[in-house]
């Protein structure tokens, strides 16, 4: 039964992260259960877990709906990431070694190929970016950081925003990733911390610059 619950949760979580459902859309148990070929019980359990993750809301009389992200939600998420993820990068640089550097380099190569492919490659850019950040958090060796940061990195509004960035902005982001690999190979935790701080601050300003375009696209 636990495997069924986990399956429902993982499928729905990936759908929300990937933008399968629109912000504010109601998530109804019966049609979702029918779509997944499951009973309503594991779907109900999964929906409540998504509410706990902040990916969905459960308002009185409103049902469970896909979260809508206000400017404050975005601001808070970036501020939390800027506090926590540079520390995770510091730890990863001191603990990860060459194996981590090679893994990050492979993600960067995928990201570079996605950027070169233009609009058709944005999905690969998203995937490579996610893998890069998650690899750093995993290498930090901190279960607490992993728990706190996982949902913030996968925030749907940020993931979908890749579609409105210019190629030059994506290349700038990739350059920060490359600098982080240098820091990892050098086992320079302080450099990794500073580069991630810059990377996230630039990402925040980039997102806010395009916020109006995102609203129009949504």
Automatic annotation (TrEMBL):
HTH gntR-type domain: residues covered: 2-69
Signal peptide: none
GO molecular function annotation: DNA binding; DNA-binding transcription factor activity
Keyword Iron-sulfur belongs to the record: no
Keywords assigned by UniProt, alphabetized: DNA-binding, Transcription, Transcription regulation
Top-rank taxon: Bacteria
Listed InterPro entries: GntR_C, TF_FadR/GntR_C, Tscrpt_reg_HTH_GntR, WH-like_DNA-bd_sf, WH_DNA-bd_sf
PROSITE patterns the UniProt entry points to: HTH_GNTR
Pfam families in UniProt: FCD, GntR
Name of the featured protein: GntR family transcriptional regulator
